[in-house]
Amino acid sequence: MTAGQRPAPVVVAVDGSRRSTGAVRYAINEARIRRSGVRMVHVVPAPLPESGLWPAEAGDITYLERAGRGTVTREAEAARSLAPDLEIEPVLALGPRVAQLVAAAAAGGLLVLGRETRHGGERLVARATTAEVTARAPVPVAVVPAGWHDGGHNRLVVGIKTFTSAGELLTRALSVASCRHATVRVVHAVEVPDLATDLGLANSYAGESVTAATRLLETVVRDWAVVYPGVAVETSVVPGRPDEVLVEAAADADVLMVARHHRGLGRVARLGRTPRAILNVCDTPVEVVPLRWKTSGVPIVLESDGEILKT
I need a surface site. Which of 1, 111, 119, 272 has the fewest CB within 10 A? Predict the structure, then answer.
């Protein structure tokens, strides 16, 4: 972003249901922090019905488009009543939901999705859609519970899986924390192998692993936190399943950040086990950050409103 250029908008998916309520509030909050606008996107799955079992007729497509435009217009009007200070742009997209949301995200700085609250088959389909969009989006994706309100905790939790690729995620987290005047808690989970448990060595393995991981984590965080001396950072290494450890750690946080690791050319985009499990149950907004670059050292970072401008 160059001087005088407005930050990219926060893109939020809306569908006219309660599922979008918390996502819209979160998007408005993020837009105010970033001093950007909000782009509200509603996707109509034309020209095929959602089941994809039969072709849609022209009349069906016209009806779906009219209904979809009414939905996104109502959502935008409701958002303007909550945030008259922001530019709210309604957008109607036609086509496959995943592809359209990924395309819409590319023009924004953050994509916000509502976490599914329905039951049965619809919930499974919606969860799969959320996971696919999160796995493919070129920008960070925040998945937000329907009942979300700003808790004002001023705390971010960052889940670190591997130390060698921690830099980019830490850079984003510290940048966002600096803009929010928030503290950061960096958490790494040590999972005890079944074999160690079977041999009665679980406690010994966990103790040694936690000690070693704590030294590594403190070193990595210290090197990167020096770029943001005004941000208070604490570290924590906890034995247990990563998804359970992170969900518990984020209970009193404003957001939980985890990474989506780059899978390389020619490999199918997918979301890992831990982020997928977290998205399904976490009552704190979860931001999944796609890793883009690799570095062996601490970058020189210029940042504004939580966005990395140059490394």
Answer: 119
Distance CA 299, CA 259 (A): 18
In sign, the C-alpha dihedral spanning 246, 23, 83, 173 is positive
Half-sphere exposure of 221 (CA within 13 A, CB side): 23
Please provide the size of the chain in residues.
311
Extract long-range pairs of 84-90: CB within 8 Å, 24+ residues apart.
85/32, 86/28, 86/31, 86/32, 86/37, 86/38, 87/9, 87/37, 87/38, 88/37, 88/38, 88/40, 89/9, 89/37, 89/38, 89/39, 89/40, 90/40, 90/42
Domains of the chain: residue spans and CATH:
10-144 (3.40.50.620), 155-310 (3.40.50.620)
| Cβ-contact 154, 181 below 8 angstroms | yes
Q: What are phi and psi of 63, to 5 degrees?
A: -65, -45
Query: Which two three-digit tokens encode residue 307?
Result: 């966005």
Instruction: Please give the DSSP secondary-structure letter assigned to residue 120.
Output: T
Per-residue pLDDT of 233-274, as tens digits, reads: 999 999 989 999 999 999 999 999 999 976 654 455 678 889
